[in-house]
Write a structure and sequence with these properties.
Elements (H helix, E strand, L loop, with lengths): L1 E5 L8 E4 L2 H9 L3 H4 L3 E4 L5 E3 L1 E7 L5 E12 L2 E7 L5 H20 L4 E10 L4 E7 L6 H9 L5 H9 L8 H5 L5 E7 L7 E2 L4 E2 L4 H4 L4 E5 L13 E7 L2 H19 E2 L1
Antiparallel strand pairs: 1-2, 1-3, 4-8, 5-6, 5-8, 6-7, 7-10, 8-9, 10-14, 11-15, 12-13, 13-14
Length: about 260
């Protein structure tokens, strides 16, 4: 038994758990040609997961590493769906995440990299933590990370542009570390069944609305009315609330409302 990942993969695609030779054959049969000709990463299974933190960080032109946002990933198996903020990782784990990200950022800087990057972590029931992914690119939470940082008067797009133009970027890590006074989340929407028809096109607010008015939602679908859902994600939601417990309940409620308005068999 192992966790197997192809060379060119993202969001959990072309990677997964393998328990026997039949599962291995099925896995190999689904690979794209580019992955059939490349290397694989094989790792021991990290069991009893309780949390999957994600960190977004920046390497400046001057080689400094800033930790921008730490949130928790929303996963369906190994499939990435979104993020929840603030992270509920304990202080010890947050320090480990912080230290590991700084080391990775400093390494990237020495290799000549500059700009945004992200790291994914897993924590199990015993309190063990591992780094499982380094993404030297924009991640799925880019838009919401940017909107959240605006609450601290930090423009993510401005500092990213300045970095790539070779300009000096000065940020206050203490201010970046201060927790916002509200919770936020974003998540793709996944229907319970394939073959459902999109009965209605749906748009609730703009993506900035939840950050301008805490407690509001942004929801949309990706497909035209009359189309049939086959595979992937059917829509997207962004939420804010006063607490994370309130946020999680709200996400489920919004999904139920969304399903009733948009989907049919």
């Amino acid at each position: 038994p192992c966790y197997l990942s192809a060379a060119y993969t993202s969001g959990g695609n072309e990677s997964g758990l393998i328990y026997d030779s039949e599962m291995l054959r099925e896995f190999l049969a689904r690979l794209r040609p580019v992955n059939k000709k490349s290397h694989f990463l094989v790792a021991d299974i990290f069991e009893d997961l309780v949390l999957a933190p994600n960190v977004n960080a920046l390497v400046t032109e001057q080689g400094n590493t800033y930790i921008l946002v730490i949130a928790d990933q929303i996963l369906q198996g190994n499939r990435y769906l979104g993020n929840l903020y603030p992270s509920i990782a304990n202080k010890d784990h947050l320090k480990q995440i912080y230290d590991a990200t700084k080391k990775l950022g400093n390494h990237l800087a020495k290799e000549g990299y500059k700009g945004l990057f992200g790291c994914d972590f897993l924590i199990n029931r015993n309190g063990d933590m591992v780094v499982v992914d380094l993404n030297p690119r924009h991640q799925g939470g880019y838009a919401c990370n940017g909107l959240a940082l605006m609450q601290k008067n930090v423009s993510l797009t401005d500092i990213e542009l300045a970095t790539h133009q070779g300009k000096e970027v000065q940020l206050s890590q203490d201010e970046l570390d201060e927790e916002l006074g509200f919770a936020w989340s974003h998540s793709t929407l996944v229907p319970a069944e394939k073959g459902q028809v999109i009965n209605n096109e749906y748009l609730l607010n703009e993506i900035e609305t939840p950050f301008k008015s805490i407690g509001e939602s942004f929801v949309t679908e990706f497909y035209k009315k009359g189309s049939v859902f086959v595979e992937g994600y059917i829509g997207y939601q962004v939420q804010t609330a006063n607490s994370r417990n309130e946020l999680e309940s709200k996400m489920l409620h919004v999904k139920e409302q969304y399903d009733s308005k948009v989907l049919g068999l």
